[in-house]
Amino acid sequence: MKKHPTKLGSSWKGPGYIHGPRLANPRKFAEFRLGKPSKSGKRQVFGRLKGTKKWVRQSTLTPR
Fold first, then answer.
1. 3-class DSSP state of 26
2. CB 22 within 8 A of CB 12
3. How are strands ordered across the β-sheet holding 29-34?
């Protein structure tokens, strides 16, 4: 896959993880960051909304 899908609700498989469905359009965000892994290995993806300092959850990464 050349580019991650940007469609809302899209999900895909990466080399070591499964990227869960998007909760918001990535164009709404200025930057992204990963949260700390949980005990099960899942990580939350957060995005900072453009023009604000508010971070909201974008999706979840699940290890394969």
1. helix
2. no
3. 12-13, 17-19, 55-63, 43-49, 29-34
